[in-house]
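Morning F.,

Quick status update on the modeling queue. The single chain you submitted on Monday has been processed. Sequence for confirmation:
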Amino acid sequence: MSHEILPILVAVHDPYPWVSRLPEYAARSIQLEIIPPIPEIVIEQLALRHYPIAIIDFSSLEEMQIVANQILTISNTTKIIAILPSDLLYQTHSLPENNHWEFIPRHDFERLHLAFENTIGVWQEASQTHCDEQEVIHLSEFYQTLLKGVQTGIGIFNANCRLVFANPALSKIFGLPSASLLNSTCQELCERIAGGSQECIIEKTFSHQHSHRLHLTRKNEIGEEFAIELIADFVKPFDKSHYVILEVRDVSHQAALEQQLRQQNDLLERLLHQAPLAIIASDRDFIIRRTNERFRDRVAPESAELPGKSLLDPAITPDPAVRDYFLQAMKAESPLPPVHTKLPGTVEPVHLAINAGPIRDEQGDVNGLVIMAEDVTEWRKLTTELAAIREKQAMQITELQLLGEINRSLHQAREINEVLYLILVAVTSDRGLGFNRAFLLLLDQTTNELSGRLAIGPADSSEAGRIWHELEGQRPTLQDYAAHWQEHVGQDQRVNEIARQITLSMHDNDSAIIQSVTSEHASILRRWEHSNESIWQQLQCDECAVVPLISKERIEGALLVDNAINRLPLQPEQLVQLERFAGMAAIAILHARWYETLEFRLQALRSAYRELRDNRDRMIRSERLSAIGEITATVVHEIRNPLAAIGGLARVLREDIDLNPLSSGMIETIISEVDRLERYIRETLEMTKPASPKYVFARLKEKVENTLQMMAGELDPQRYYV
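Structure tokens below.
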């Protein structure tokens, strides 16, 4: 008996089970058309040929909606057996109403083949295909054998809602033999499972003539709850009688997995929406699918309108660098470093750090992109502030190092001119404060006037160029300047001439310079603000800084600095540096003055000491000479008397005794030597002060006689008479 060929469209991910059974299908006059499960290809194939049966494997609800909407315009008689993931079985209510659709869980091949065979039977009845009785018996035995071997409980209900067939698995679930279950109603079976009145799924299926589901829970012998799923399918066999096939399965494990999956999904949803990062997800074509609350609140309040739009649209992602980053991230095998961008904000721009990475399925294929955007506006502010603080700290450290070097140089200086020169060098050198020129005015305490004492710097640009050319590549330190200060002090003659012309009375209260000095605060003077200052004609510049030099509440002078050569404007922060330096400079000047005063006093003390020492030596010498004089007078007096006696006696002998010539010559020699000795004694006595007389008791007559006797030779008888 010939049979009509039954064309069936099979659009599944894994065609092997169907291809392996092609000979069996060919023997049963069934022609399978196997194509990929792509909605566009399925719709095109259904439009080219009428298929009474189409088995389609769907991966998403969107694919089902596309096929469901298009198939209504192509054919309303094709029976669609939809193979779905478990999580999509409960979302089929959103499809258009159509009794030709049947939904089968993926990997449930038993139910799939059962539905497939039932659909074939319906088609064969509709096409009035006649089977002989032997074939019907064979098929009946085959199906009964098949149903008895499956692990799913299967029962067949007639139009009276009575059970007419129960396989062993169904008997095991209800705990009764198959014979005891037959002729039971579905409500009775449900009450046996869950207790109480339950909705009759069989009547509902007969009434609507399409599949229905019911979930029940029951307890086993040890009190553990397990879940039961009832699936009722409407069947219309060849004899035009109606039947409902009931599948009863223990889905406790599946329910537990689904519950766990729902909990994980809820957790992921909470994490997604409560995450501190803005998150956005797209498909492989960069079409936005989801955004979280953080993204909507902070980054894009209008992001509710973003799903369905492309990430590569410049209106959505205006920064081309970020769009290129998304393209690279979709292809990247390893994480990419974040990219930074800026979005306009209501108050201020929003700075974002964006990380993106591909979303991969279980097979490792990329099917989307996840993007995390972190608002780093505050971080950038803090980073900028931190950089400014570090820069300020570096400047302060440099300034402290500079002040330390200046302090060491000034501390080693002694002479006032050296101190003043080093102060000016510190203000003008490139390793110091870097001003073009500097003038030192010192206060004369007697006249109470500020007078220019010393200056440093070029007089004009040509001289500045010459000086800077000479110093190019040398960068001398303050110690280098200090070592040769005597060679350089006063070298800049023209600015020193200007300095010597500056004289300001401390009583001139109209002078801004005097006001700055007396107020003890540094200030910047500008020609257009203080045009009455006479200093402008001398300095030949438009602005200068005045810094008072105060030490121990005493005004030492003032420091004038300017940038008359490079014309750079003076800044307030430079005043702060000058004030810090001025205190150190004033103390150095005070110490130099003290040193100068101490040096002068020390020289005076040294001179007084030398004079005192000379006077002491002279006094000692005088005392010694006085003592020698006294001794000499005494000795001479003591010697003179014997000499007088010798001389007198010699003269007497010469006059009274006749002597031979030899003796007479000897007497003359004695007399001449005595005369010479007496003359020497007389001269010696004249050089020494007379000795103080000593008074003693003596016989006057005896003394006179002795004296006359000693002086007898010297007394001229013609002149003296005793």
